[in-house]
């Protein structure tokens, strides 16, 4: 079982910044990727940013140049990923979810994914 805990959402004015944190912990698993998705009312969940275990990153088109994902691998079984969001726009308003992709230690397949409970980000105009 993997625990995923998010924090850092809130209300900010357009042009402002926020930083989200996601901490994942579990026993006997290897974390293959961690990332952020978001879902606005009436819209599908979409990729914001994702980072693989090797440090490769992938961003949604709408956040490129404004958001940065980073990761702290201080411990073997506990990882934290951050999403620094700058120059926020009202259209960034959504619930932001952290997703963690893991595999059992020593067994690269199959992979399993876990989601956090979500954190609200609201950007006022």
Spell out the blueprint of helices and strands.
Blueprint: E1 2-7, E2 10-13, E3 18-26, E4 29-39, E5 46-52, E6 57-59, E7 67-72, E8 78-85, E9 94-104, E10 111-115, E11 119-124
How would you explain this protein's 3D organization?
With 125 residues, the chain is an all-beta fold. The protein is 0% helix and 61% strand. It has no helices and 11 strands. The protein has strands spanning 2-7, 10-13, 18-26, 29-39, 46-52, 57-59, 67-72, 78-85, 94-104, 111-115, 119-124. Strands 2, 4, 5, 6, 9, 10 and 11 form a 7-stranded mixed sheet that branches. Strands 1-3-8-7 form a 4-stranded antiparallel sheet, with no helix packed on it. Strand 7 (67-72) and strand 8 (78-85) form a beta hairpin. The chain is elongated, with a radius of gyration of 14 Å. The N and C termini lie far apart (40 Å).
The overall pLDDT, averaged over residues, is: 92
Q: Radius of gyration, Cα only, in angstroms?
A: 14 Å
Task: Quote the distance from N terminus to C terminus.
Answer: 40 Å
State the secondary-structure class: mainly beta
Q: Report the helical percentage.
A: under 10%
SSE succession: EEEEEEEEEEE
Number of helices: 0
Shape: elongated
Largest sheet: 7 strands, mixed
Q: Low-confidence spans: pLDDT under 50, at least 5 residues? A: none
Total strands: the figure is 11
Strand content: over 45%
A few lines on this structure:
The protein has 125 residues and is an all-beta fold. It contains no helices and eleven strands.
Q: What labels would you give this structure?
A:
four-stranded antiparallel β-sheet, 125 residues, seven-stranded mixed β-sheet, mainly beta, 11 strands
């Amino acid at each position: 079982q993997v625990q995923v805990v998010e924090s850092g959402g809130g209300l900010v004015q357009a042009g402002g910044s926020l930083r989200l944190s996601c901490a994942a912990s579990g026993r006997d698993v290897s974390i293959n990727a961690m990332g952020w998705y978001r879902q606005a009312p009436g819209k599908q969940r979409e990729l914001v940013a994702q980072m693989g275990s090797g440090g490769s990153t992938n961003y949604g088109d709408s956040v490129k140049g404004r958001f940065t994902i980073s990761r702290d691998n201080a411990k073997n079984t506990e990882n934290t990923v951050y999403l620094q969001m700058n120059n926020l726009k009202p259209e960034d308003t959504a619930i932001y979810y952290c997703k963690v992709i893991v595999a059992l230690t020593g067994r690269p397949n199959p992979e399993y994914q876990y989601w956090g409970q979500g954190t609200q980000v609201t950007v006022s105009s």
